[in-house]
Amino acid sequence: MGQLSRDRDDEGRARSARPRDGLGRPLPYGVAGVERQPEGVVRTPRRTLVEAQRLLDTGKPFHAHEVFEDAWKSRPEPERDLWRGLAQLAVGLTHAARGNAAGGARLLVRGADRIAGFGDPYDVDVSGLTAWARDLAERLEGGSGSAVDARAEAPRLTLK
User: Fold this and answer.
1) What is the pLDDT of residues 85-128, one digit of tens each?
2) How far is CA 13 from CA 39, 65, 71, 146, 159, in A?
3) How far apart (Å, rounded) are the C-alpha atoms in residues 10 and 38?
């Protein structure tokens, strides 16, 4: 039995080339999917927030998570937990929108815990986001387990 060939990126790292839907779920090869966010893009904090908000507002929290992931990997060490926590909030919303209430709730709480205490750097509405995440997590834990509407549940990231 021969080894299956794996999709690779330009640097030879394993990376699925399958198209994805708006929630990041893989689709069959040949099907039109949502354009993926390029990896490793270094953005200013403001640009990161604007791009992530645009993706959240259009019901694409998985893709917003990828934007936050770039920030957490490229920003200075003291800020990394902020960006990582924001990525966890986006992934929590992704799981909730996919119908994984338990996983979504866990990630929302984890992300809220990670960003709590940051103040409001770059006008990030930390207190509003932690309240949003905890509220959604509570609703997910007490709900029917059905998927939430990612667009309708999208939080506001900034105070302005």
Assistant:
1) 999 999 999 999 999 999 999 999 999 999 998 999 999 999 99
2) 12, 20, 20, 35, 38
3) 12
Which residues, including other chains, have CB under 8 Å from residue 107's CB and lie 6 or more apart? 88, 89, 91, 92, 95
**pTM, 2 dp:** 0.85
Q: Tokens 């039995």 belong to which residue?
A: 1
